[in-house]
Amino acid sequence: MRPQARLQAAIEILDQVIEAAAHQGAAADTLVQRYFQTRRYAGSKDRAAVRELVYGAIRFTAERPYSGRAALIGWLESEAPDQLALFDGSAHAPSPVEPFETRARAILAPLWLEPAMRARFGEGFEAEARALTARAPLDLRVAPGADMDEVAAELGAVPVPGLPRALRLAEPRPLERHPLFEAGAVEVQDAGSQHVVAFAAARAGETVIDLCAGAGGKTLGLVADMCGEGRLIASDTDRTRLQAMGPRLMRARCDAVVEPRLLNPGREREALADLEGAADLVLVDAPCSGTGTWRRNPELRWRLTADRLARLTHVQARLIDLGAWLLKPGGRLVYAVCSVLAEEGTDQAQAAAARLGFALSGSRALTPLSDGYDGFFVARLDKPGETWLS
Question: Distances from the Cα of 389 to the Cαs of 201, 231, 279, 331, in angstroms?
Fold first, then answer.
């Protein structure tokens, strides 16, 4: 592809991303893959170059742009103005840039959300917001049976301070066919997610419920901390994600320990009735805005609305109450969201403690700027009853 054609391809993909963001459609990564599936003539360098253009434009502005062309022109004017000369109207090239046509502006956070984020971060808002959309490293969780030093040397990775089984690669690379991945020695998992698992502190012999298990990333960490002893129920309302857990459990040799359980939305108690008051630990890794993962999914800024955030906080409160119902006296509920917003973090945990009569015994907020992780909030709520020995 000529450089001009790469620009036009980026514009076409960005148009699709903008449309998908407006209607909760496919993710940007999926749209990029689909685009090139029907354009076999594009080589690996072409695909990499177009992807760079697409994500550069997405990261540039937090407000959903008028068009893909407006997004790309705005970003290029700011970061690579020499490339605007390639908008020359030649074959497969964008038409020339007009002086007064619409351009995207550099915006760090959605305008409607900026007051809440400024209240959350204060004078550090701009630095935190930039860190939230910077490129993310690739973090790995090393299985207990694998040698950390050997894995690190093999992959050229470095340890993540404070997490005993976490490694980090400065540059992302495909690992799906690497022998270490196929053998279950490593799993891709952000260090923030690993911190949530460590905060939960699952123990051997416990009954543990991963209430919103998804594809099982945190489930695998909980199993490792339990040393394969006890009972772990991994539940979710998303059949596709829950099914994706199976191969991961088999690769990690945990399929005999974990009990996947599909739930019906709004009728979760029916499927979990046998576990009422039985759990030592319930992890509620709740659906959330994803504001803490903007550096991995920057187009999420174009998808989030005030109405959607309000619906999410309602779901979070309902799931916390469900988790509390599953706990035995003296059990602990660990609530986590990959969000940096107080509405989903501190406010939600404090409201739950007051509503349920639980003790809020600890919490932590993580951000890319302060911790080098995705943004997370995690809190522990203790149910009254027998004291859990810590």
Answer: 12, 19, 15, 10
Neighbours of 181 (CB within 10 A): 17
Query: Can you tell me the distance from the alpha carbon of 333 to that of 321, in angstroms, rounded to the nearest whole number?
Result: 10
Query: What's the farthest any 2 CA atoms get from each other in the chain?
Result: 75
If one counts every other C-beta atom within 10 angstroms of the C-beta of residue 249, the result is: 20
pLDDT score of 255 = 66
The residue among 211, 144, 221 whose CA lies nearest residue 188 is: 221
Distance between CA atoms of residues 52 and 7, nearest Å: 10
11: three-class secondary structure by DSSP: helix
- Token pair belonging to 189: 């998992």
Half-sphere exposure of 31 (CA within 13 A, CB side): 24
Q: What region does 214 belong to: left with phi over 0, alpha with psi -120 to 50, or beta?
A: left
Catalytic residue among 212, 254, 288, 338: 338
CATH number of the 137-189 domain = 3.30.70.1170
Pair of tokens at residue 124: 């550090």
Tokens of 147: 């040698």
State yes or no: pLDDT of 325 exceeds 70: yes
Decide if 288 is catalytic: no
Distance from CA of residue 74 to its chain's centroid?
A: 27
Reading the block at residue 291, the tokens are 């504001």
Local structure of residue 131 (DSSP, 8 states): H
Q: How far apart are CA 311 and CA 31, in angstroms?
A: 26
Q: DSSP letter string over 329-364?
A: EEEEEEEEES---TTTTHHHHHHHHHHHT-EEEEEE
pLDDT at position 390 over 70: no
Kindly tell me the burial class for residue 264, based on how many C-beta atoms sit within 10 Å of its own C-beta (0-12, 13-18, 19 or more). exposed
Three-state DSSP class for residue 247: helix
DSSP string, 63-92: SPPS-HHHHHHHHHHHH-GGGGGG----TT
pLDDT in tens, 178-203: 899 888 889 899 999 999 999 999 99
- Domain ranges for the chain, please list them: 3-107, 137-189, 199-382
Identify the CATH class of 199-382: alpha beta
Contact 28, 299 (CB under 8 A): yes
273-309 pLDDT tens trace = 999 999 999 999 999 999 999 999 999 999 999 999 9
Q: How many CB atoms are closer than 10 A to CB 265? A: 8
